[in-house]
Amino acid sequence: MKTTQLTAEILRKKSFLCVGLDVDMDKVPSAFRNSPTALVDFSKAIIDATVDYAVAYKPNLAFFETYGVEGMAALKEVIDYLNAKHPEIFTIADAKRGDIGNTSTRYAKAYFETLGFDSITVAPYMGKDSVEPFLAFKNKHTILLALTSNPGSNDFQRLETNGKPLFQSVLETAKTWEGSDQLMYVVGATRADALTDIRKIVPDAFLLVPGVGAQGGSLAEVATYGLNKEVGLLVNSSRGIIYASQEEDFANAARRAAKAMQEEMALLLAQNNLI
Amino acid sequence: MKTTQLTAEILRKKSFLCVGLDVDMDKVPSAFRNSPTALVDFSKAIIDATVDYAVAYKPNLAFFETYGVEGMAALKEVIDYLNAKHPEIFTIADAKRGDIGNTSTRYAKAYFETLGFDSITVAPYMGKDSVEPFLAFKNKHTILLALTSNPGSNDFQRLETNGKPLFQSVLETAKTWEGSDQLMYVVGATRADALTDIRKIVPDAFLLVPGVGAQGGSLAEVATYGLNKEVGLLVNSSRGIIYASQEEDFANAARRAAKAMQEEMALLLAQNNLI
Description:
2 copies of one chain form a homodimer. By secondary structure, chain A is α/β, with parallel strands linked by helices.
């Protein structure tokens, strides 16, 4: 998918919502708990309930890998369902991969080709030759970790390097890499104060923003400092939507939660003259 | 497995060799290329051929994930084979994972429990709360990327932070984390000059050293600067062993290559009064 298609879908739905599929079997409604197909069934039910209000879905790989071979088979079913039923949806493999050249190429093939995701999250620690192999895949996107929303982001990401925090060095260096027009960046919403600096470095890139809701970030702040002329934002919500209710009404509750976010996003898009 | 058991096995075999299973279907002998079970068959053949001279095996997850569900099933077969037939072998999931708290716990369960590896490689970028969940698993080991052997390691790992390169900050910070006695560190052999500094910070930890052989690192240099009183080293070789020959004699060639490394290691262990 091209970013222009993603932007068009955002404007059509008046939403830049990404739903995170962090499907925790301990938290799904009890009806699912003893089913061997619960990972797939719950994911599909959440997709069906929320797809009118979301433009992207982000399966969290850990929650599939933890079930081994069956988990990977479930992931394949979920992505196949998204690609077949909702080809307009932008799909993100939240995998946080990254390794030396030929190994990164294998990861890219795994997620872009074998599974058919539009994008994958990648960690920057190993540098240029660990990320560029992902960027060689046309119309696929690599979402590089810049500033994450967890407390541990202070350990290294904010260390001063050349007079600026490491995450800024990551952004400045990454934008010089071959194929950098296919880069997007993870920026935690709990760091809305940093968004202004980040937008100076990467004015045109899409930012994937986790941390709104359960982790305490403010959607209005993220929009104020993060929106650009092509929207340029995907805001992720996982727990706030998929576990809006853990009872039988989980699908309706998820739909209501997604709709509430979409409505707030529509207002913010209008306030910023984007719709 | 406890590190004391790993050290005992190193002293028994007079080897600190780890064989990297980066099984590339384009490079395996032609007899394997069209077989649906080639990943497993080739891996088992390499293990059988080299296990007299190696103390650890390191499947590279990308080369399995690239085949999707079948690849994960193959990985499961390989690790089950190692655990059943060679329980004395230290197993490393070369996965380079890392994510926020509950997600890292799922990755840890995937590799330590569902698959049964002794250890996993983890990227440090997201900090403390992305690594500590792995350290909560007793007798399991987390091998943190410190200084890697690829050119891109210069992009961020060597940036100056607080008057020292980032990788030194990573080591100094990581050793303060809860459960840090279960940490090991990746240090590329192409950086043998940095080993002296690293040993000052983590004198007792095991170091996993890739980059000897194909990437140009020197085993003698790594031993000189990296060995500690409990050996404290695992040196990985992938291509130099598993593709020593790409013809029918691949198993014998792999065995000879592993034996040659073991013999050099035995000499280095003796020179350092460890055996």
